[in-house]
Amino acid sequence: MTSINCKGKLIDFEIPKVMGILNVTPDSFYDGGSYKNEKDILAQAEKMLNDGATFIDVGAYSSRPGAQDISVDEECARLIPVVNLLLKNYPDVLLSIDTFRSKVAQEAVNSGAALINDISAGFLDEAMLTTIGKLQVPYIMMHMRGTPQTMKDLTEYEDVVHKVIFYLSERVAAARVLGINDLIVDPGLGFAKTIAQNFELLNATEKLQVLELPILIGLSRKSMITKTLGVDSNSALNGTTALNMIALQKRASILRVHDVKEAVETVRLHQALKGSN
Predict the structure, then answer these.
(1) Which position among 17, 256, 261, 274 bears the catalytic label?
(2) For this structure, is 222 an active site residue?
(3) Which of 134, 92, 129, 95 is nearest to 115 (CA)?
């Protein structure tokens, strides 16, 4: 599967795409609290679109390890006004909604969002897959264990690559039964994995092709970079770019990033490299 249908627009992954991250949370690990008003939100969205983002992924619930849990109503109160704001100013933008809650997904799609990005692949809300099936929007399914509050203690695997592929295959099968047509898989780097496991999964990204679906890789400024290099997230762009190139070489279809311009340039260089063969 090399394409998905977003609001009637066919998105082809023959050339990998870039998804820009826009967190409207006070506590996300890198950009939490950065976009507090309409001016800042619109400025960042405009920059990402001008830099070449195909999607903007909006999140109102921080999923960093140990993040504070918030209610569904609070998540909606943070998120929906931003969805409306972005679509009012950029009517053609393809908004991805980073949520694991079916009510939030429903309200966001009703407001014009194009796809849902669920860190739990439907496990944290039993109504999610049914909701997505009814909404008929593309759905990103990620591997994780537990919740953002507990996942850091759930990192024991006999074979992390095999486990992630098996988990995602089961979730894909469940989604297909409910009529979900457009699926994207994400191995969940940083979610219930050690640093070594993150690198093992990244190195095995192409093995996810057995699922015959587009693959999203989200490693932007994460701890697998900062802890390996001994830097903080503000100094992790170079490491992010280096590993994004590896992800592309391993057949990633989407790079989910904070820094769109650099990721788009990485895709262009990777395409030039492919074209030279």
Answers:
(1) 256
(2) yes
(3) 95
